[in-house]
């Protein structure tokens, strides 16, 4: 009892505080008199007078009794005025009951205070008595006083019939027998009356006097419900006591049709299942099933692994929508599972997402002599098969930062390409249109970079996506480079940012267009600077755009030469409160019609707060935790990113220091190599990124532990503002360390956190009952104890807290141990405080855009800015903005996505979205629009000639209306009459750029297909090749033969074209010849 009283000290502390002022008052506490026969259980209550207003938070007592008469088995609070306190702490020994009980709410009212459960010993003689004596009893620490009255228990005469204490339980149920198990409160004989009605009619007996009985009921019928009554008589003839009517079933014989799902055009199997048939003597089976013919065509059966395979082949017939099976055998069927498998096919045109019933028309075993239950089945038609990639993916048209990805599937499905310069993929392009021939054009690719990609497709039923394996392609290297330099810019200052380009000599650059994006909340555009640049000899460059977006165009009479600044842009920076990173994004740079190609690099700008002369301020701490015999952790929070420094040592001269290497707001510094059991002094100071250095914090000290300790900690959690959350207090292994109590005080910022509750449920301390705790502003005090020591590791308690709605996103709120002790300090504990990081639940805010820029007949750039780093997403289409989607998973504040493969002269609808690093999604509620201009058609011209029969001649083929568009490849066909003309050969025109190749396919009579390609583009109208032909002999003079061009593709893309055919006229160029001499 001494240990029990000791562990309750902390629990009773609160009761003592509340009752100190209670008026002197005596409360009557009495033990209830009781009487019961030998072998019975009896409940005996402690009764109390009215406790209302007396602030009773705890009580404890010791009660003794005669162990020859009684045995105490349990102490419970159920049904008493102390029930709200939960489970009492109890120590039961022979002849003695010790109880301690406490709660956080004072007891109210009078009546039963606590309940003790006893068993009357079987050998106790009638009339034998036992005193129920209270050796001690007190409320709280003695206030209010208690006047005690003992009770008496008397062994009474047994005049009661036996009672059921357990059961009846129906065990080992089978088709024809069942075992009934029951228990009684005293030795008795049992008669079971049973039958298919409440009239029963059948009986079974156990004539042995016992308290437990197990009786078999035999010769029952399968699949049948029976009624049963229990009749009990004891050895004194008390009884029979008849029970209520009970019901039980023998084991059911069930014949069930399966519920199956099938895809259109696929085979299905429908199982007919049965339980174990052994002992039923099944020698005959007849089944008849109705099925929906629009969803299923039943065709036969499969006996593989089926029970009917034990007999000869069943007879099967199908008439309309009815399937019938008859089978029999000389040996009864045995086993369970699939009786037979019905096989069939789902029609290819079966309607999707419809179900039909598979219904039993007839099901018999042994001509109906066996009782059974039958269950219908169903067939559901669903498309569950994902599309299959039947061809590809392949990559083509790697030109000018674009790539076309193509593949084919076995059914109409969507198109998705995921891609990036490494794994995982960072970008995705998707098309919601359902097609079997898939083609997506990627744009905005980095010149010279290797890309990883995979393709996927999902069908109309949502199956998929089916992904290809990872593939790679490499974008051709750029001829020149263009870049903005990384820069640090003090807040409020203006600086020029030059776009530096590599050597442009020899490329004949006479015009360019650049697209530059920036964050208008951080940078203000002032002016464009042309003086001193490569374009200084041109007329003034033009700048168009809006806040956050600049489109710069220029042209001149002379080609640019050399390297250096193409132009400069002046910006004035805002003055941020803290160091802020932003970007001057070079979205696009196009020279002439796309040649030379440029690799692009954006500039990173670090905005440095200007005029900041204030050093960092510590807003929380410094605190110390994780104290061991050789180490400790110092932690604190500052109002801005800073580099922290800790000085420490055995006295006020300190002597040692540890400095942080990265600026942060939440600071943690570990001190190691400390002496055990020693006192250490420490102080901290902080330097911000502008070099402002704070004073040292006041001196503080801690003492290392003398030896080993048990780690007790709280985790770091992420929580949304306004949320109520649980924070566990955890301990390492405390087995065999004699931990009977613990006292905890937690501290936290009361403006951001408040305590709600503490629980021990499902923790190591659950056997101790509910902890006592008190909540104060910024404080939570917890005390708990029990008579059994803690074992193992895990949660000690779970603390429920609430985070304030006003908690700033990204901030950190420490929850620290102000104090902690196991028992009275032994074993020692090393505590590690927890922290709450406030989750960002605010989506990005649109600070600029969206805008559509550099809109051509087949492409457009969509640009916008957000107030925090986020990914980039555009959904777009012609009838709806949800037809296609393009995304870039990189997090940035300046967003630019290029939409490609657009239709000329078409209005497009689009929406934008951005998701930040915390997963918060911004979506534009508004739908925006742009229109691509109509494309000007290329003209493909074939020359004409007048030729003689059999003459070999050449014709030029030219491309016109190029209009500065960069052409890297040309594909087209030339058709003619093969009976009148013969193709001999073709050669590239001399005016093409160096390195252009030519291939001609003559596999189709009367058609030549040409493929021309080169690394340097055609930028103007010119002849592209020369075709050599021969006019065949026998062609009538005056005949005109057409050479018709068709199927023009430019850079791998089919384009609108004006075709000008060539015309070959066969003429007589042979002078007359004498066939006979002139005659006179």
Description:
With 1080 residues, this protein is mostly beta strands. It has 8 domains: 2-156, Immunoglobulin-like (Sandwich), CATH 2.60.40; 164-249, Sandwich (Immunoglobulin-like); 254-381, Sandwich (Immunoglobulin-like); 389-474, Immunoglobulin-like; 480-608, Immunoglobulin-like (Sandwich); 612-622 and 635-707, Immunoglobulins (Immunoglobulin-like, Sandwich), CATH 2.60.40; 846-931, Immunoglobulin-like; 938-1066, Immunoglobulin-like (Sandwich). The protein contains 2 helices and 80 strands. Strands 29, 30, 31, 32, 33, 34, 63, 64, 65, 66, 67 and 68 form a 12-stranded antiparallel sheet that branches. Strands 70, 72, 74, 75, 77, 78 and 80 form a 7-stranded mixed sheet that branches. A hairpin with a 2-residue loop joins strand 29 (389-399) and strand 30 (402-420). The termini are far apart.
SSE order and pairing:
Elements: H1 2-7, H2 9-19, E1 26-31, E2 34-37, E3 41-48, E4 58-64, E5 70-76, E6 89-93, E7 96-102, E8 111-120, E9 129-139, E10 145-149, E11 151-156, E12 164-171, E13 178-195, E14 202-217, E15 225-234, E16 241-242, E17 246-249, E18 254-257, E19 259-262, E20 267-274, E21 284-290, E22 297-302, E23 315-319, E24 322-328, E25 337-345, E26 354-365, E27 373-375, E28 377-381, E29 389-399, E30 402-420, E31 427-442, E32 450-457, E33 466-467, E34 471-474, E35 480-483, E36 487-490, E37 494-501, E38 511-517, E39 523-529, E40 542-546, E41 549-555, E42 564-573, E43 580-591, E44 598-601, E45 603-608, E46 618-625, E47 632-649, E48 656-659, E49 664-671, E50 679-688, E51 700-703, E52 710-713, E53 716-719, E54 724-731, E55 741-747, E56 753-759, E57 772-776, E58 779-785, E59 794-803, E60 812-822, E61 829-832, E62 834-838, E63 846-853, E64 860-877, E65 884-899, E66 907-915, E67 921-923, E68 928-931, E69 938-942, E70 945-947, E71 952-960, E72 967-975, E73 981-988, E74 997-1004, E75 1007-1018, E76 1022-1031, E77 1040-1050, E78 1053-1054, ...
Parallel strand pairs: 1-10, 2-11, 18-27, 19-28, 35-44, 36-45, 52-61, 53-62, 69-79, 70-80
Antiparallel strand pairs: 1-3, 3-8, 4-7, 4-9, 5-8, 6-7, 9-11, 12-13, 13-14, 13-15, 15-16, 15-17, 18-20, 20-25, 21-24, 21-26, 22-25, 23-24, 26-28, 29-30, 30-31, 30-32, 31-65, 32-33, 32-34, 35-37, 37-42, 38-41, 38-43, 39-42, 40-41, 43-45, 46-47, 47-48, 47-49, 47-50, 50-51, 52-54, 54-59, 55-58, ...
